[in-house]
Amino acid sequence: MVATNYYLLNIVSNLLPSSKKALQYLVSLSCLFIFIITTTEAVASNKIVIGTGLKPPLVSSEYSLGFLDTLAKEVFRRLDIELEVIILPAERALINANKGIEDGNLLRIKGLEKRYPNLVRVPEKMMDSEFVGYAINDIPQQTGWDRLSGYIVTFPKGWKIFEKNTINAAKTEQVRDPVQMFKLLKEGKADIALYEKWQGILQAKKFGLKNYKVLEPSFVTLEMFMYLNKKHQKLVPEVARVLKEVKQDGTYHSIFNSSLGAM
Asked: Which domains occur in the chain, in start order?
């Protein structure tokens, strides 16, 4: 009996160091896991994803440098934050930013925070945008939105500036792809296409539309701003400060010349 007990004690003693090693291994593994998670979160916190419904040349393509995404990336780079700009339908980009799915919206008119309460506007403007009309047929030269009265008007879906100012149009056609607007013009299914000036010129060129006119004067020229989701509210003053700095040191002008100025 004594011999048996001694034998069992020997087995337990031999197992004990292995159990300690196993415990040490589990503790080490847990620490490593915590380190990986913490490091990943730290890296992730230094990256921001912003959505936009804009098209080239305001955003980059595989063929050309975009003005606004290049500008925004430079601003965030100076804050040691990696910025990714993703292209979405205009309405979806706005909804996602408000929900926090993405971290913000690249360019919108002033005042959207009233309708989308989770968005905070960066108070330093990104640029001034001219909103113009494109037409093939002759349109009487007038000023203001009233000149749309009696015409079939097309514009990109989700553009609030056009949604609220086309009530006098005979009919409106909202499209997801800007090229569709110029197709409607060419086929005579729309009289006027409304768009931001720079994007419109490039999209008309890509579509191969040559005999169009840009209606003068522009319907409106507005200051345009970046918006961030409220979870990044503390970052807003810093983004505004650096954006102003980029303008003052000549970088803003340099990016403009390399993108829009090269058209």
From this structure: 45-127+225-262 (3.40.190.10), 128-221 (3.40.190.10)
